[in-house]
Write a structure and sequence with these properties.
Keywords: Oxidoreductase. It is built from twelve helices and 20 strands. It has 508 residues and is of the alpha/beta class.
């Protein structure tokens, strides 16, 4: 659909939302409430397709913090009811009981187009170098269907809520793939394999190396340790680049979210008992693949350690190394991104993982997410770039603010609020025996991989007196911050020091 001459300013054209995950469908719900035309383009074959790939994982946050207000207002007339507010859903629960029904409500049905992978965003008739007349042209979104057919859609605005799933950071150091990483692909898995379910045969009786120090790594390690109890020959090795794992062990029983605290406690016990072999200070320098196929023998993962070079022979390598955004699709529009985090420049200082875990994040909205390209926004997980600290509730407030601005309601767009537990998210006043005074040792691991407990584990009910990453139940939710974030208002959401805090910790 290419704009006519009369539509070149964008009038009469839809807002294109990229991605039918939680943030994208929340954007659609707010657009529908505002009476704005829109279309949602989803690369997968259904709403929440990316989340479905880690459907076996249980979130840390209960249902009450996982749905958007406008979405609920559209769902409730259809007979939909919020699942038990204090239950922790799995990814599959979130898709089945929230995202799929939301995509089917009358206001959204027919506007969510699946199997449409966006490959580029640009200005109609102009590349990124052209300035004259730029503001008079609509945006143009190019998508490819399952059969490779290409469709161009002219848009008055674009909300890129495509997330970061599927674009993992490499195993090598310095942000680069390790030599041999491509050749070792048959031996590698993504960050959240279903060890106790769908992928069981791949791990049973084999040696698995898990690389990474987030909650994705922790959940996989615990699942592998459980598998080893019933599958002889199953071995588990865990490598981290740093010398301390205290921030993953976290606050234990004192953690603001019991589900997350239990993971740290259990992981520490598994390492100390020898069920998981931990190798610290391991920087991967190359992978030596044995040949073609995963059955041809183990891959040699070679790394540099304080004691010299070390090779680990593994049948399977789990790359739980975090994610980075797909920026290739944005080469022909003008975006202002922070050089370090690849987040919008005005948002980046608020979420910088060098100094924050789920940091002291002030409420933020349309003004912080805008780019030099009028009408283009990144929202949700993708707006955080490489920072691993995204909160689902934050994404909902982001798109509410953006849609209000598109509707011309500047007052609502600037009235940015977050309803969170009174104790905040990822409470920053915890202390464990592994940490120095003043350091909390938590690494939130929020966002789409916010929970890492296998679905086989019974649902954990969060303590009603505390909050936690990605939300947590509390009897008195409060609104935190009103207006622009430069007023200094925010909420404590984790380690104040972020990555830099690693240097302050003793061995753990």
């Amino acid at each position: 659909m290419i704009a006519s001459e009369a539509e070149k300013g964008g009038e009469g054209l839809p807002v294109v939302v990229i991605g039918a995950g939680p943030t994208g469908l929340a954007a659609a719900a707010h657009l529908a409430e505002r009476g704005l035309d829109f279309v949602v383009l989803e690369a997968g074959d259904s709403a929440g397709s990316a989340i479905g790939q880690w459907g076996h994982v249980r979130l840390f946050s209960p249902w009450r913090y996982n749905t958007d207000a406008a979405a609920r207002r559209l769902l409730e007339p259809t007979g939909w009811k919020l699942p038990d507010a204090d239950t922790l859903p799995t990814g599959a629960d979130l898709v089945r009981d929230y995202l799929v029904p939301l995509a089917q409500v009358p206001a959204l049905a027919g506007r969510v187009r699946t199997g449409q992978r966006v490959i580029a965003v640009t200005r109609l008739g102009l590349d990124v170098t052209r300035s004259i007349g730029r503001e008079t042209r609509p945006l143009l979104v190019r998508a490819a269907g399952p059969d490779g057919a290409v469709t161009d859609i002219a848009a008055r605005a674009v909300i890129d809520a495509s997330g970061t799933w599927g674009r993992t950071n490499p195993l090598g150091h310095s942000g680069l793939p390790a030599p041999g990483e491509d050749q070792a692909a048959p031996h590698l898995t993504g960050p959240l394999p279903d060890v106790l379910g769908r992928d069981r045969d791949r791990f049973a009786g084999r040696h698995t190396l898990v690389v990474g120090m987030g909650h994705s790594a922790a959940g996989t390690l615990l699942a592998l340790a459980e598998l080893a109890k019933t599958e002889p020959g199953t071995r588990v090795t865990w490598t981290v680049r740093g010398t301390s794992v205290a921030r993953l062990y976290g606050g234990g029983d004192a953690d603001g979210l019991p589900a997350r605290g239990a993971i740290g406690t259990r992981l520490k016990a598994a390492v100390e008992s020898g069920r998981i072999e931990l190798i610290r200070g391991f920087t991967i320098t190359r992978l030596d693949a044995p040949g073609t196929g995963a059955e041809s023998g183990p891959v040699q993962v070679v790394g540099r350690t304080p004691d010299g070079e070390l090779a680990v022979a593994a049948d399977v390598v789990v790359a739980a190394t975090g994610f980075r955004p797909d920026l290739d699709m944005l080469r022909e529009i003008r975006v202002d991104l922070d050089r370090a985090t690849e987040a919008p420049a005005r948002l980046a200082p608020l979420i910088d993982p060098n100094f924050h875990s789920c940091g002291t994040v002030p409420p933020h909205g349309e003004r912080e997410l805008a780019h030099p390209e009028p009408g283009f926004y990144m929202a949700g997980m993708k707006s955080y770039g490489r920072a691993p600290t995204f909160l689902m509730a934050t994404g909902y407030e982001q798109v509410r603010s953006i849609v209000a601005a598109l509707a011309g309601d500047r007052e609502a767009a600037d009235d940015v609020q977050l309803d969170l537990p009174e104790t905040g998210v990822c409470s920053s006043d915890l202390l464990t025996e592994d940490l120095l005074p003043g350091d909390t040792g938590q690494d939130a691991g929020c966002g789409t991989s916010c929970g890492t407990e296998p679905a086989a584990t019974p649902t954990v009910q969060a303590d009603s007196t505390v909050g936690g990453c990605c939300g947590g139940p509390a009897p008195e939710p409060i609104s935190i911050g009103v207006g622009a974030p430069d007023g200094g208002l925010g909420f404590a959401t984790g380690v104040v020091h972020g990555y830099s805090g690693d240097a302050e910790r003793g061995d753990a």
